[in-house]
Amino acid sequence: MAAADADADAAEVERLYELGERLTSAKDKSEHAADYEAIIAAVKGHSVKAKQLAAQLIPRFFRSFPALATRAMEAMFDLVDMEELAIRIQAIRGFPLLGKDAEFVSKIADILGQLLASEENVERDAAHKALMSLIRQDVKNSLQPLFKHVELGMEIREKVICFLRDKVFPLKSELLKPQAEMERYVTDLIKKVSDIDHIERWISCMYMALPIFMRGASSSKFLNYFVKQIVPVFDKIPEEKKLDLLKTIAASSSYAAAQDSRQLLPSVVQLLKKYMPGKKVEDINHNYVECLLYTFHHLAHKTPNTTNSLCGYKIVTGQPSDRLGEDFSEHYKDFTERLTGTEETVRAASKRLTQGMANFNKAISSAKTEEEQTKIKVDQQKSTMTMRAYNNILAMLQPLHGKSPSFIGDKKNTLSWMEQPKKPAATAAGGKRSQPAMNGNGPSKKGRLEGGQNQLVNRAFEGLSRGGRGSGRGRGRGGRGRGWGYR
Q1: How confident is the model over 425-446, as a mean pLDDT?
Q2: Which listed residue, of 44, 75, 293, 404, carries a Cα 20 to 30 Å from 463's Cα?
Q3: Is the pLDDT of residue 325 over 80?
Q4: What stretches of 138-257 show up as alpha helix (H) in DSSP?
Q5: Cβ of 277: how many Cβ atoms within 10 Å?
Q6: Using CA atoms, how far apart are residues 8 and 192, in angstroms rounded to an integer?
Q7: Full-prediction pTM beyond 0.85?
Q8: How far is it, in rounded angstroms, from Cα 61 to Cα 39?
Q9: What are the start-end ranges of the E strands in 322-462?
Q10: CA 61: distance to chain centroid?
């Protein structure tokens, strides 16, 4: 019986080879529709090798038989859902050839997106390559279903995020063309995830898109939309996401245009007042305050007179938006009290931290085990980061006192979690190092925002992968018969 089965399999494979050769040599392939139908029908057979061969032949002649396109596509979906790995791999490799017809691109990208969660490395790699090939053919219709997976929060969300981060965005200058049009398109994809119940997934989409918009023409508009949607529901965002969110906003704030900065400032000031106490307290959320002050400075630097009505400042630009004839003294009183309360709180906290940090080296030397040393070093590093945040806060508070303050807008302050600039080389004996100005009127010097931003985005993705809801186990082999939803 086994010999008979083997003979039957060999005969079926030989028949498919003959069909393929006949189609290859035919000048008018449309006259051989019956041959192509026979190849499609082989998917329902029993021969594994015949199915592998069919997975090669169906894509090869797909474009020659538009009337059979739907049947051919369904056959490929059947192949990619079969038990045998070799059949699935062959079908995945053939998908990009079917994607040359635009109407099928989204369907194929959806399937390949699901396969990114496969437990088989070779299958996952094949899905990566097929998706990249598909994206090169049709960026828009390929990205849409991938973003949909993120929006819906399915178990493959983290896999899709990693694929976009590691495979697509590094090639964004090559793939996302024309740039302005693609920025608008991705912005529109992100805007579909604005429901409060989906806010965490919405933030995930923001992290994915940030590398596209950081230098693009739409970065300012995107940031504007982002802040306006998020700030009203900030309290409903999971605590573990809030800081990453504020870091993202801070790191991108310097790219906001003046017009958009004018619209963004009210929301930022609203949050800033929430976390800046009106009097001295025991401590504050220094991470939040650092991010918000940094954002405030950069936005206010672009449109200083907007702060007149928000904070009671009196900055004259000669524009009607100065609103100098109106009384905003209560705003000024409230804002300056918050500045003073925050400054006193941070100075006191900084003093306590400085006293504690002096003991770290002694504690490390006296630690009895390597484990104890490691723990102390971790605490030391945390304290160092906190001190950086305190110093940044104090440096950003100082120029805000007074009716006409100065705003830092030249990236001189390096956010505490970013790579710190190297100290300048010592000058000749007796000389003094020049100190950088802490406001927008000083000499400009290129900061390290760009490098730090790349680190931020990477950490954001890593956090999503660790903290997402999906199991990342892939579709497994136990899901037979559920189909792909395109029957």
Answers
A1: 42
A2: 293
A3: yes
A4: 139-152, 157-163, 172-175, 179-191, 199-213, 219-230, 239-252
A5: 18
A6: 53
A7: no
A8: 10
A9: none
A10: 38
One-letter amino acid for residue 84 of the chain: E
Cα–Cα nearest to 89, from 63, 61, 121: 121
Report the C-alpha gap between 401 and 415 in whole angstroms.
21
Give the closest residue to 442 by CA, choosing from 420, 418, 413, 419: 413
Secondary structure class of 228 (helix, strand, coil) = helix
Q: Provide the pLDDT confidence category of residue 347 given band limits of 50, 70 and 90.
A: very high
- Residue carrying the six token digits 């030989």: 14
Model pLDDT for residues 252-305, shown as the tens digit of each residue: 888 888 888 888 899 899 999 999 998 999 989 999 999 999 999 999 999 999
Residue type, 224: N
Place of tokens 């009895």: 368
Q: Which residue type sits at 276?
A: M
Cα separation of 391 and 406, whole Å? Answer: 18
How many residues are there in the chain? Answer: 487
Contacts of 229 (CB under 8 A, 6+ apart): 194, 202
* pLDDT tens-digit map of 72-118: 999 999 999 999 999 999 999 999 998 876 778 999 999 999 999 99
At residue 466, φ and ψ (nearest 5 deg) are -80, -35
Alpha carbon distance 307, 31 (integer Å) = 74
What is the per-residue DSSP string for 120-158?
Answer: -HHHHHHHHHHHHHHHHH-HHHHHHHHHHHHHHT-TTHH
CA 62 remoteness from chain centre: 36
For the chain, report the end-to-end CA distance as a whole number of angstroms. Answer: 36
